[in-house]
Amino acid sequence: DANLISGARAVLTRLHDAGFQAYLVGGCVRDALLSKPIHDVDIATSALPAEVTSIFERTIPTGMQHGTVTVMVDQYPFEVTTFRQESGYEHFRRPKEVSFIHDLEGDLLRRDFTFNAMAMDIDGHLIDPYDGQNDLDKGIVRCVGDADARFQEDALRMIRCVRFAACYDFQVDPSTWAALRIHRTKLQYIAMERVRAEMDKMIDLSLYSAIRGMSLMQESRLLEFTKVMIHDQWNLEDHTLYQVVEQEQDRLEHWDKHADVAVRWGLLFYRSHTNPEQAQSIMQKLTFPNRKNTEIVELLQLHAYLHSIVIGNKEEDVKPSWVRGVLTFGKDAALRWLHMMEGDELFQSPHQQQASPIFTQLRKHGERWLSELHVLKISDLDIKGHDILKHQKKKAGPWLGELLQHLLYQVAMGQVDNDRHELLEEASQVINNE
Ligand code: ATP
Ligand code: MG
């Protein structure tokens, strides 16, 4: 984004003019070298937080005690952080103390991985004391300094290590990986929100990186050592999941182009034989926002429902089951289900049995049947509960909800028009037949 770059230049220039050193650092330098889009820009400077605040008009005191001030230029935020050193790491988490220092090199030394410990000056010159560019070229995640000490200081770095390996399809340097395996149990000291934030980054990106990340978490057993016992319910040991990554990269990429995150999580849960209740509990432990949790659970519930139809093989005609499923779990769940099944195909080995004819039919017609639905919920009906009460002169009760549900289904199936009079008539018939 050209505005982001020019904003960053403006911030650097202002700091230079005031007599301070200032550099681009961290993720933005790394992503620029990888020719990946840059989403946020971090700046390291010799100016103290109070000095930064006084130099710029619009600032937000994001974390003054850690040295971070957010500087606004137009609509863009820039995180400006004073060169600092960290010490007194406690409980394998963030440092207790930070002290401000005068040189960039000391600041780069505290950073986690070699490719995150590079800086760029305003002329585009790279400052790369730990050979991060070389590791980027070779595709290697490597701790700055002694991996053993770095993971011991801050256990979150282990899950960041997996995240970067997954998102960039990198290998983990052997000594970094060995240290990770030694210190993996310390992940239990890290808040689940922070673990989730890193997992989100790999799962949001693509199914490929999601599966790659999950496989590294499984291989390292990091998943077992989170603060809460996720592993009890979530068994990721199905190796078809990981084989696909090796063999089907192109098709995974194609599938990803129009996938949303909920579909991706849904597929991961379903493919690891996790039922909706287990998935819900895992997502709670992972501190998912409720809304996202619900979306994924509804998708898995719809799948379980459709699967029960397949098992029971109750209906020749699939449309009624589909419509019931859509009315119960929602249109979004249905669209996601269609997408999930498309992805699921990638995991079917040739010797596995063919998809059930019911699923085949749904995949063929499901989308059209969805678009033909004129009603999705009771409030879409051209009638309200109190209309029926008035008409029938009956007292409200559970029968009313059931009746409205019946009407909704009838209209959805095209058996009754969504018209007040017709609906009242159908309601009378149902009541009289009882
Ligand atoms: P993203 O693309 O996800 O923003 P990022 O590398 O910018 O990746 P941030 O969490 O934004 O990740 O951190 C910015 C920089 O701060 C990192 O590049 C790294 O230099 C440093 N950093 C972040 N977390 C740690 C940590 N736990 N230990 C050491 N350094 C860290
Ligand atoms: Mg960042």
From TrEMBL:
NCBIfam families: PRK13299.1 (NF009814)
Pfam families xref list: PolyA_pol, PolyA_pol_RNAbd, tRNA_NucTran2_2
GO MF, one example: nucleotidyltransferase activity
This protein's name: CCA tRNA nucleotidyltransferase
Species of origin: Paenibacillus selenitireducens
CCA-adding enzyme C-terminal domain mapped to chain residues: 263-426
Example of a GO biological process term: tRNA processing
Cofactor(s) in the UniProt record: Mg(2+)
Keyword Magnesium: yes
